[in-house]
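We modelled the chain as a single entity of 224 amino acids. Its sequence is:
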Amino acid sequence: MALATLAVAGCGKQREPDLETGKALFVQKCGSCHTLGRAGTKGIRGPNLDNAFAQARRDGMTDATIEGVVYRQIANVRRDSIMPSNLVKGADRRDVAAYVGDSASEPGKDKGRLALAGLPKTANKTVKASGGKVTLDADPSGATAFSAGKAIAPAGVLQLIMKNPATTQHNIAVEGNGIDEKGRVVGKGQTSMVKATLKPGKYTFLCTVPGHAEGGMKGTLTVK
């Protein structure tokens, strides 16, 4: 969602946008590349959207104008942009643009139902190791999340396995208690693996692609 210029643009709204859907889609589709404070994303491949609109906000740019800018940037991707064409379409595109318009460079946190939108549904799910292996697949939607936010394993040699069904590249790594092991970064249909000898204690499993762990792609591994 590279933002080349902050030109005034209109969306021609056909209905009221759904900010909850827009936030969830932004986290899923855009968060691995863009930082947006209220969405909790910290991607670094694309522009930081809070910074991109900070001066414009100070100059009086409205939510609706920012929405229009973002909508047009998504709809008309520059030839040299890293953003895929048709990343979001139709009503989804309008919802994403509206959420960015509502939240970019705005201090504070989302409230109510909007605060919960975009959070990985797997954050509280726990998986247990079996046969010296624990599987923590990447979210198939492309969101920065694993299939579980917690894992339990016995002490000893453990292999962490991540299959990546998403188009976004990810890897799996484990850190803590003197351990710092990283699997290779892989694309869709590939598998990242890492093996380590772990003592009892708490560890962190994570994706080390810049911005992904900060965006939520991490969890706690308890070794007993």
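As a brief sanity check on the tokenised model: Helices lie at 19-30, 49-58, 63-75, 90-103, 113-116. The chain has five helices and eleven strands.
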